[in-house]
Specification:
Elements: H1 3-13, E1 19-23, H2 29-37, E2 42-45, H3 48-54, E3 63-66, H4 75-78, E4 82-88, H5 91-103, E5 108-115, H6 127-135, H7 137-140, E6 145-153, H8 160-181, E7 190-192, H9 199-203, E8 209-212, H10 214-217
Parallel strand pairs: 1-2, 1-8, 2-3, 3-4, 4-5, 5-6, 6-7
This protein binds pyridoxal-5'-phosphate.
Pyridoxal-5'-phosphate (PLP) is lined by residues 23, 25, 46, 67-68, 153, 195-197, 211-215.
């Protein structure tokens, strides 16, 4: 882990008021604890099995953010401790989160993941799907979820202009959706964009949550390290 880099990143994010989600996937609990001891509280994981292994071994003060594609049948296991789910990409998934959250008497913070890249491998809702979700009676009846904003992943490219255009589009969509559906809801304020390779661009496009893994923890191996 690179402590100096971490401190420098915090300084870099500060003027923008963006919060850092330390993406600890594949990294051992010792690395997470090291960062926790420096004051980091928000950690991001993308695999349910992995976070279920790590979470009980780490301080309760950690806010676990789930950032990866979530299968409906795994929702139940993460509801008791998830602070935020970034990757909600269907009404069906949201309905399951709402149902399980109700059973735990919780209100779970969610972001709706929007498809902004030009790659078929990335998950997310289209603008049309987003609107139809927000307008549905099923959504309006959900009492145990809170939509805190939008999340997106840009194309995996070195073309800065292309990434900037994708983030820019999502930023505009965020503003429009806020105005049309969440004008009086203070909690709808998060725009989760930016990873190690493109966070500087994301900061210029209104990012409030930046999801950084390799730039803090070092490159990941293909296979997860031992927990
Ligand atoms: C792995 C991951 C990140 C962090 O990636 P880095 O390039 O290591 O910063 C961010 N967001 C999601 C959804 C991820 O799966």
């Amino acid at each position: 882990m690179n402590t100096e880099k971490y401190i420098a990143l915090l300084q870099e994010l500060k003027p923008y008021g963006a919060k850092l989600v330390a993406v600890s996937k594949t990294k051992p609990v010792a690395d997470i604890l090291e960062l926790y001891n420096l004051g980091q509280r928000i950690f991001g994981e993308n695999k349910v099995q992995e976070v279920l292994q790590k979470q009980p071994l780490l301080p309760a003060g950690i806010e676990w953010h789930l950032i990866g594609h979530l299968q409906t049948n795994k929702v139940k296991q993460v509801i008791p401790f998830a602070a935020m789910i970034h990757s909600v990409d269907s009404l069906k998934l949201l309905a399951e989160i709402n149902k399980q959250a109700a059973k735990s008497s919780r209100v779970v913070n969610c972001l709706l993941q929007i498809f902004i890249a030009d790659e078929e491998t990335k998950f997310g809702l289209s603008e049309e799907e987003l609107r139809s979700l927000l307008q549905s009676d099923e959504f309006k009846a959900m009492k145990n979820i809170r939509i805190c904003g939008l999340m997106g992943m840009a194309s995996n490219t070195n073309e800065e202009q292309k990434i900037a255009a994708e983030f820019g589009r999502l930023q505009r969509l965020f503003t429009t959706i806020k105005k049309q559906y969440f004008a009086t809801e203070d909690y709808f304020k998060e725009l989760s964009i930016g990873m190690s390779s493109d966070y500087k661009i994301a900061l210029k496009h209104g990012a409030t949550l930046i999801r950084l893994g390799s730039v803090i923890f070092g490159e990941r191996r293909e296979r997860p390290d031992a927990v």
